[in-house]
Amino acid sequence: MKKIILIGAGGHAKSCIDIIELLGEYEIFGLVEKGIIDSEANLGYPIIGTDDDLEDLRNKYEFGFITVGQIKSAETRKRLFLLLEKLNYTLPVIISPNAYVSKYSSIGAGTIVMHGAIANSNAQIGKNCIINTKSLIEHDAKIGDNCHIATSAVINGEVNIGDESFVGSGVITKQSISIGNNCVIGAGNTVTKNINSYQIIKN
User: In the annotation, is 148 catalytic?
Assistant: First the structure.
């Protein structure tokens, strides 16, 4: 199996570990945490270093995957993604065996598609995204880079979501609308019209 390290050791990492184990393609060698080297193991996997060690760790491990969560701001995940790219890590696409991803869809490097999620025909999902549990990305929808589509969110057909946006749990979008860059859509909202960049829609 391919050796991989995970960057981020919090709650989201637990969900990622579960999926990576089920895939059976990667052997997790440990987790990297920001500035903390004495953290407890996560689901039995040790903390093997901090962000400052990523350059040295690249000499041992080709594959890295970001397991930091994203609530509201994408800044941390984006920073880590750019750093891993600079250090020439390979950032795989991780798709749960319990998800459905159409062969006609496309998914960018470093994105995870979690249990029960669906990406239908011609869905286009960018780099470094979280497509969370039971979320739906319908036909012809476009999701930008560094986005988090949270649990059970419904992104209907031909919706376009810009980079670095967060769509909360249970959100439903009307078909064919656009949501700009760096938007935050709070849990449970129904979005029926276009939303400009840098907007926050509270729940």
Answer: no
